[in-house]
Design a protein that fits this description.
Two copies of one chain form a homodimer.
Chain A: H1 8-40, H2 43-74, H3 78-106, H4 108-112, H5 118-143, H6 147-177, H7 182-214
Chain lengths: ~240, ~240
Amino acid sequence: MGEHTVASFDEELGQVSRLISDMGELASSMVASSTKALLKSDNGLAQRVVSDDAIMDARQRELDTRAITLIAKRQPMAQDLRAVVGAIRMAGDLERIGDLAKNIAKRVGAVGQGATPRDLSHSIDSMAQLVLGQVDGVVEKYAARDAEGLAQLRADDERIDVKYTSVFRELLTYMMEDPRNITACTHLLFCAKNLERIGDHVTNIAENAFFVLTGEQLPPNRPKLDETAAAVPAA
Amino acid sequence: MGEHTVASFDEELGQVSRLISDMGELASSMVASSTKALLKSDNGLAQRVVSDDAIMDARQRELDTRAITLIAKRQPMAQDLRAVVGAIRMAGDLERIGDLAKNIAKRVGAVGQGATPRDLSHSIDSMAQLVLGQVDGVVEKYAARDAEGLAQLRADDERIDVKYTSVFRELLTYMMEDPRNITACTHLLFCAKNLERIGDHVTNIAENAFFVLTGEQLPPNRPKLDETAAAVPAA
């Protein structure tokens, strides 16, 4: 990133980076807790995720204020400016991951009213583990300044999309088998969709982090993503 | 916004504003076309929305580049800086409205395979009209610098949420009545959810536009929003 005439620009940018890492850890914990709450019908844990979202929002506001103050005070140019703008964008995606985890948590009560078949729980759990691995991975690789790892991580989002399509099909099948499954499965459908969207935000974060670390853009996004519009099982 | 020592800052900010208005008009047209395509099973129109999204993305990139160049070149302080950052945020929300319209368009084929009951079409159409009114409204009120109107518009998002909850219930009912409706209704459920999310992005835009125009934050967000987790009809 080169040297700065004003030494403490890097210190202040470091503080912004640490806030990003804090938000990343909180995002990871919210995703882990919300999916655990969903699969164990744990309303208490779900409630905690809802409260955590307020902390996430506060951290994003703090990061925004710090980043904007940093721009105004230090007037960074080109590359440095892009680093600060990149941090603002990463914070935006992390905040949205928190929102999506909260939305999963808020559906725990509604899903809990029906019993989730074991196979389905297994599929959703395995999708959730994939997503959690991506969230943890992007936070670690950003902290370790591992640009190559971030590029690989972006490519791995495809595994989530494949899993989502399969969960989507499974949910439709359960709904068709027994109309009493429809309400719970509809909420699970939104939960699965939220997990898929969390994966997309991880992709955005990986792209921004790569740019902040290297000053280069990753090659254009691979063709996206929600293939369920085509994945229509015969009714 | 006060006078500037460098006269052309306002000109450059004006260009950024015009890009926001362009993106707003495109967003409005994409929302109108995607819901029309959905309700008329018009695959050609749906395809056009998918192409429009590439234009939207290009405009957002142009706005981002201009805004960041503007900050780097003019080094605006405080209020002016916030105006530019506000524009970057508004562009982000408009781009996401485009994404959501595209997602609706991409579901047109999957929904078209089942016949949508007339009552349901009517409900979705009326939700779409509410959302479209909000999108058009926020673009107009931002262009007219109508801060009071923006505050009112944010409050009006509640009507969309109420409508969404009712469409959600209706869709569950249709699915329960006949399993052959499940596939199409599932896609319609995501379309309705996308419309509700478009409303949320309009709310964000109204808040940012209000801040850019007045330098004041609107009072904290009203309690949010997706009430469907509680709206579970007896199965």
